[in-house]
Amino acid sequence: MIPKKSPAVVLSSGGLDSTTVMAIAKNEGYAVYSLSFSYGQRHSHELAAAARVAANLGAVDHFIIQIDLARIGGSALTDKTIAVPKSVKAPMSASRIPITYVPARNTIFLSYALSWAEVLKAYDIFIGVNAIDYSGYPDCRPEYLLAFEKMANLATRAGVEGRTPIRIRAPLVKLSKAQIIQQGMALGIDYSITHSCYDPSMEGLACGHCDSCLLRKKGFKEAGVADPTRYQQRTR
Amino acid sequence: MIPKKSPAVVLSSGGLDSTTVMAIAKNEGYAVYSLSFSYGQRHSHELAAAARVAANLGAVDHFIIQIDLARIGGSALTDKTIAVPKSVKAPMSASRIPITYVPARNTIFLSYALSWAEVLKAYDIFIGVNAIDYSGYPDCRPEYLLAFEKMANLATRAGVEGRTPIRIRAPLVKLSKAQIIQQGMALGIDYSITHSCYDPSMEGLACGHCDSCLLRKKGFKEAGVADPTRYQQRTR
């Protein structure tokens, strides 16, 4: 049993996975501090979704940090000169990293979460990464998360003063997308308020063809749940 | 022998330590990419010093990332409601972390450096941390740096594609402040362009009494080098 309303920082993109994680943290009794990032991403509709999700799930605070990854570049998600690929293939394996990989993104996100957690005296940081139905990003693997956790406990007061250790909680890491959706449905999530697409229309409608859309579609299908996503009309 | 002009990312605060590290990286033959942070710190004179240092040492690029630590708070260096302590005592031991500690700061800095390094195809990240004459920050210890390095190699393409591993280089970690200054003088550094004070005057003059000033003063004295720092007149 955790004490009632211990604080926890939850990384939120407004997408399906992180929303499920927030519902899990809430269900475990944590006071949720939602943390999102504005990083020059094409999919800024994410941020609107993250705000909806934080309000919907009763987060104590929702904090959006502006970070400048556009100047660093190197990804189709932050560099406007690189096109987001459209694919009907299966997601790439771990040996082929797609161009939508943002260099060291999860490390930057978790570092900010660690800083906020230390100030809040929170010992749990929740992240919605997934190593099964994922897109081949190195920073979604369990061994990466364990290494981050170890580093985090050396980086902070916890490591010096012998406090409660910090835990990086990734409750979805070994679940399929369908299992994630089933768990979220059991917790009462309304997935229509979430946003996953890497390349939405101006109005925020999902493209239906990027890796993220394909994974999400497949998940709803396999879970036997009606897909509530609003897709653009396919014109080609 | 490293190939001529391999890129390296060097974290620069415009202070004595990181400037010495940049000179070391340059002396080893690296093309230096200087990375500084504007984080709502009281000591924004650091940034002017960092720009002087990058120009003086011939950095290929000097990148200042805006980061929002003021909203996170928790430190005298980022929270205007907490006073910077003045002390004539020796620096605190590792079991007492001073209020100038910024939660997870070096982790955030190194995470951005990692992201930039991955895009630049740089495998060396230099940081001027020091575990001898330091201020008791947990994220200055060798075991922390090793844990970050291990995590970094799992976080990035290096870890998946078997590329050259990323190294976190901390050449000052076991040197005293006096030894750092002696090494820097041998490399021709003009320390008058650097800035270390946590609580300078509006004009950028050092206070002479904060932990950072005390360590710096002591270093010059022990190195037998004239201190080029411009201090405020002591009025009390």
Q: Could you please describe the fold and organization of this structure?
A:
Two copies of one chain form a homodimer. With 236 residues, chain A is an alpha/beta fold. Chain A has a single domain (7-223), classed as 3-Layer(aba) Sandwich (Rossmann fold). Helix content of chain A is 35%, strand content 11%. Chain A is built from seven helices and five strands. The first copy, chain A, has a five-stranded parallel sheet with strand order 3-2-1-4-5, sandwiched between helices. In chain A, helix 1 links the parallel strand 1 (7-11) and strand 2 (31-38). Chain A is globular and about 55 Å long. The first copy, chain A, starts with 6 loop residues before the first strand and ends in a 13-residue tail after the last helix. Chains A and B meet through strand 3, helix 3, helix 4 and helix 5 of A and strand 3, helix 3, helix 4 and helix 5 of B.
What is the terminal-to-terminal distance of chain A?
54 Å
The proportion of strand residues of chain A reads 5-15%
Quaternary organisation of the protein chains: homodimer
Number of strands of chain A: 5
- One letter per element, helices H and strands E, the order of chain A comes to EHEHEHEHHEHH
- How much helical structure, as a percent, in the residues of chain A? 25-40%
Low-confidence stretches of chain A: 88-95
CATH topology of chain A: Rossmann fold
CATH evolutionary superfamily of chain A? HUPs
- Most extensive interface, chain pair and sizes: A-B, 47 and 47 residues
Describe the main β-sheet of chain A briefly: 5 strands, parallel
**Order of neighbouring strands in the sheet with most strands of chain A:** 3-2-1-4-5
